[in-house]
Amino acid sequence: MAILGNIIKGVIDIKESLSSEVNPVEAQNEVLKQLLNTAKDTEFGNYYNFKTILESENIAKAFSEKIPYFDYNKIHEEWWYKFQEEADNVTWPGHPKYFALSSGTTGKTSKRIPVTDDMVEAIKQAGINQVFALSHFDFEADFFEKEIMMLGSSTNLQEKDNHLEGEISGITASNIPFWFKGYYKPGEDIAKIDDWDERVQHIAENARNWDIGALSGIPSWMELMLQKVISHHKLNHIHDIWPNLQVFTSGGVAFSPYEKSFNALLGHPITIIDTYLASEGFMAFQARPETDAMQLVTDNGIYFEFVPFKPEYIKEDGSLVSDAPSISLKDVELHQDYVLIISTVSGAWRYEIGDTIEFTDVARAEIKITGRTKFFLNTVGSQLSVNKMDDAMQELEAKFDTKIPEYTICAKRCEDDEFYHCWYIGNEDSLDPEAVANALDASLKEANKNYKVARSKALKGVRVKLIPPAIFYEWNASNKKKGGQVKMERVMNEEKFQLWEDFVNSQL
């Protein structure tokens, strides 16, 4: 009998039943007040006169009118650079203990995003709330006695001046609660290994010693780890070694493009739970099994705003024009793409995180990530978002009975001086590139009227090259590093795409 599991499950069920229902709009109003009040005496708070904003009749309106939008470059150049000069009380009281290194999907240069003690606590609390939400899922008591494989970046954080640096997954893993350490795998020693391949090799060698019930990480790197374990032990699938594996908590990117290739590594279906943990904070998690949408964390250190995702509001680099209109949670609508704006307990203010979302349930504040502003392909008016591209990849998988875990695209002017959408698609099968291109073109025409119009005018055609998925991972390794928060860029400009094509040619 799973005595400990029954105790844990009972605590979760009782806690959930006693928890009062959060009103997302009211919670957000309170969070904004708390943020402004806490930071009112910082340099940033004094400069933008937070005290006057707090005295306003409509605090949210005064806040949005007084504070401009900031992307990383703008807030770093104007404010966060001071942290490197040992300044305190810049955009949040005190000095950040951690900085999350994030190269995102756009280049080699790491962003250094402050992670305060308040943010560490907020992330912990959001994680605990997600655990409590498991009471909505139909898991047996023995599930709560199994171990959890958290595959992130190294927890061997680097000391620099008076702070520590690392990716957010390494920072959070190094701050796990003491009571969770017995469940956490691969364990502290292996998690500190910097080299991805060496770390995964150690995981494979120790896999038989663990009874894994849940996985947590970015899908692409989780797949590679599972493949390594399966290969090392000469298994048919991962359930041969971890028979009690029931859950994969996916984060960082949409899971749908990886669904088919991921499921091929399993002996039977498992529950997929989506989360939204970024370097800037724990934004949302899937709170109930009836949907694959995620519930915004509206009562815990992050204030959200939303800008309608329209071409006229987006600059070429993916940032917002200064006068793009924003709305608060109380005014959002269903199935409208929004650019997500956040203000946080790490001292990010009206910060453009770069993601686009849509609401699937306004009352519950449930969302889906629909793409990246930088990955919005609008050359010659095609207006393709990442979710449309992901949907098209899934249609190709179904049509050709294949798996497509990775892809990238560029709108490129070719030898005839015409624009083409040039796709590189990760695939192991011997498919006909022309047939794939025709099917892809037809799918996008059907799904997107702007794309269809562009194809009848300035967009000459579609070109597809099929390459091994491993090349995508090696590209990431050569430009950034393997594992952790690293994700493949879905859309490239022509300059970056030339480097990509040169790299692909060197690998084939």
Automatic annotation (TrEMBL):
- What superkingdom heads the lineage? Bacteria
Start and end residues of each GH3 middle domain: 297-363
User: Which stretches make up the GH3 C-terminal domain?
Assistant: 389-495
Protein name as it appears in the record = GH3 auxin-responsive promoter
- Show the GO MF annotations: acid-amino acid ligase activity
Stored InterPro entries: GH3, GH3_C, GH3_M
Give the source species: Bizionia arctica
Q: Which GO terms describe its cellular component?
A: cytoplasm
